[in-house]
Amino acid sequence: MALLDRFRRLVQKPGSVDLAPFRAVAEEAGRREERVRALTDAELTAAAAAPDLVADLPEFCAIGREAARRAIGERPFDVQLTGTLALLSGHVAEMATGEGKTLAGALAAAGYALRGERVHVMSVNDYLARRDAEWMGPLYALLGVSVASIGQASTPDERRAAYGADVVYAPVSEIGFDLLRDRLVTDPADAVQRAASVALVDEADSVLVDEAMVPLVLAGAADLDPADPRYADLVRRLRPGLHYATDEEARNVQLTAAGSREVERVLGLDLYAPENLATLTAVNVALHAEVLLHRDVDYIVRDGAVKLISESRGRVALLQRWPDGLQAAVEAKEELEASPSGEILDSITVQELIGRYPVRCGMTGTAMAVAGQLTEFYSLQIAVVPPNRPCVRDDGPDRLYATTADKEVAVVEEIVAAHAAGRPVLVGTGDVAESERLARRLVRAGVEPVVLNAKNDAEEAAIIAEAGAPGAVTVSTQMAGRGTDIRLGGGPGAPVPGTAPAEQEGERRDQVAAAGGLLVIGTGRYHSSRLDDQLRGRAGRQGDPGGSVFFTSLQDDLVTRYAPDETYRGPIGDEGRVEDKGAHWIVGHAQRVAEGVDLELHRNTWRYNQLIGLQRREVLTEREAVLTGDAADAAMAADAPAKHAELVETAGAEAVAEAARQVVLYQLDRCWAEHLAFLAELREGIHLRSLGRGLDPLVEFNREAVPAGKRLLGDARRRSVAAFEELTATEAGVDLDAAGLKRPSATWTYLVHDNPFGSLDERALRGLISMFKGRRR
């Protein structure tokens, strides 16, 4: 296996899977198709329930294909069956956009269910989870498999019922939130989830890589001070270069000596005195919010609230927020009312959540670019499934310009020319601000574009559905078309008297095809080539004509952030065009550095969370024994025998056992919440201290976190005994109020960007960039 992995890396195909066995199965399924088609619906359902079906893959594929044809009117192509078989083998299936991943995934989920496995199909949002469960519902029903979906608005009873189905479609965040809530129940009957053995992940690269380290958080009401607006006003007046400096990647900012003196002058205190540590932290957080987080890039303000933008998708990241201190600082910066804050009761990263499933598989259009990470972090291999029809899209070479202004002029000219020829254009921009700036330029040039960004992402499906209409111009952040096909010719359109709707649609399609199909334009390379490929993939679907081209400049944020020392002094042509190969190398080099930095961040954050995950599992093992058994009662009888006997004599053994259970559960949960707070503070402090002393932050973190974790269960038991000793009892039962078991009056869930303080090993990142700088053309 190790030799095979080395060979795959050598040929630039890490994790690729041989498809020959899957193709052979699909071909054999084709030979059985006529016989299976003769079965009645009842016979088809009975055949799907046959105990030996799971061992006969060609028969399963033949039955699944026929069920899909009858139930939803779609006969899976051989390549879709190949994708299904890859998923059933525990791989990630890379299938191009428009090649039918949803159906391939449904057949795989049904296959796992017919094997007796419970399956969670993880989507990226409520809309896709509900749509796919409803769309594929008749298929599942014909195969005798139950299916349900869960969304943000689902009630506990609805969730409990849904998790009872063989296959559950749900956003990955909702599955994580349900797990967190179940971890804190005090009665087993209150839990909603049932254990599932298979995680089938849609948009696998996005979930497993881009969002892998996003912590899902369960918080409880707590009285935390909002950010002091004085600090927002103070840092707003500080001058870059003089009062503060940022690192090369613009990921961290710190006060200079002059900046510290200015802050101390304004606040009238010694900023670095031990008693002013909280003030120092608050100023640093306010500075981070002011300098490094940008409106319409990192977040938008909508309905009087700060809404974070997903970097990988360009959408509003629903329920997502920064850690409370930074969230409050951004709200103070924007002069908004502070949102509710709370104490973190529990959390889990997306990567840890996925890792809980014995079987993991997924599907996406762009997996090979992150094949190494999928293998490293999830032990997943990639099955690259070819399209049903060859892709004929014309991917043009990048057009590089010296300045951003030159680039934007060229982009507008290209769009105007394509629009005049009746060719639809989809433009992918880097952020909200750029999409709106480009739209204004187009309006001035006489073109009325449709803008799709985080400010109107609710209209995404409707906008994208029309992006292929003749002459349509759609300007979008990196979110184009997820879950929605861009059909050449667009939707049905307005009726034309005397012409059938299907005829009209065909005419529009022919008109667009004659003009060259959908043209995709990127206004700059993204921080990952995978996102570039996702944008390109909107054109040329299912053998359609189409084209793509990226416009870049030497002033793009990607270049200035990740290749700041690379200076181009070569020739510049008319209108700012740069043809030199060395200049093009700089752009590619910057993207490679960005990808390397992101990978190192993933590894670093995973290392921190690995220890936390191990400690949490130890606590959960103890909690499960208390929740479902008599561990708490036995512990109190052993540690507080006199009190235990006294309570039993008055209230009875059953009431005392329940009281002991509630006391110990409360103290375990309380100690874990306090431990999480300690680890968050430790990580931030370790990072800041290690930078000044040349220490390894991870080693220093573990040096203090490990002993604290070992003390946790002992502390919880001692607290439990002390609380148990305070209980009083009557013949009616045990009074728990005396033990001070006050749980939060309210809880809520959200996703959080990992804490920017302490999440980076600066020495590792600088070393990585230096390594890339050493690689010449």
Automatic annotation (TrEMBL):
It is an enzyme of class 7 (translocase). ATP binds at Q80, G98, E99, G100, K101, T102, D485. The keyword Flavoprotein does not apply. Residues 82-277 form the Helicase ATP-binding domain. Coiled coil: none annotated. It holds the Pfam family P-loop_SecA. It is a peripheral membrane protein. It is found in: Cell membrane; Cytoplasm; Membrane. Residues 4-584 form the SecA family profile domain. SUPFAM superfamilies: Helical scaffold and wing domains of SecA (SSF81886), P-loop containing nucleoside triphosphate hydrolases (SSF52540), Pre-protein crosslinking domain of SecA (SSF81767). It catalyses: ATP + H2O + cellular proteinSide 1 = ADP + phosphate + cellular proteinSide 2. Its EC number is 7.4.2.8. Part of the Sec protein translocase complex. Interacts with the SecYEG preprotein conducting channel. Has a central role in coupling the hydrolysis of ATP to the transfer of proteins into and across the cell membrane, serving as an ATP-driven molecular motor driving the stepwise translocation of polypeptide chains across the membrane. Monomer and homodimer. Part of the essential Sec protein translocation apparatus which comprises SecA, SecYEG and auxiliary proteins SecDF. Other proteins may also be involved. HAMAP family: SecA. Belongs to the SecA family. This is Protein translocase subunit SecA. It comes from Actinomadura nitritigenes. The gene is secA2.
